[in-house]
Design a protein that fits this description.
Mean pLDDT: 90
Order of helices and strands: HHH
Low-confidence stretches: none
Number of helices: 3
Structural class: mainly alpha
Number of strands: 0
Shape: elongated
Largest sheet: none
């Protein structure tokens, strides 16, 4: 059997297709995790009104995270900020 190499155009098309699939999966994972956190907030006794206030704050937090992400400081800054405010969170494996 003879090996066949991908052309530059085929590689580019494959990369675009793979990125599209991964982006969709990441978005689905993000939505699931957010729903789990919101359900946990309700289970902990927070009101739906409070959960909705948190949801309203998400775009600002995401924008702030995105700006720091470019400098590779986002995870560390976010986690340290939460810990400083008394929230019990674990460091990511990258930050350890």
């Amino acid at each position: 059997m003879k090996a066949r190499y991908l052309t530059t155009k085929e590689k580019a098309a494959a990369r675009i297709a793979a990125e599209s699939v991964l982006d969709a999966q990441v978005e689905d994972i993000t939505n699931r995790v957010q729903c789990m956190v919101f359900a946990a907030m309700l289970n902990a006794g927070l009101s739906a009104r409070t959960v909705n206030r948190v949801i309203d704050q998400l775009p600002d937090v995401i924008d702030s995270y995105g700006r720091l992400r470019k400098e590779k400081l986002a995870d560390y800054d976010m986690i340290q900020g939460l810990i400083a405010r008394g929230v019990k969170v674990r460091m990511t494996k990258e930050e350890l």
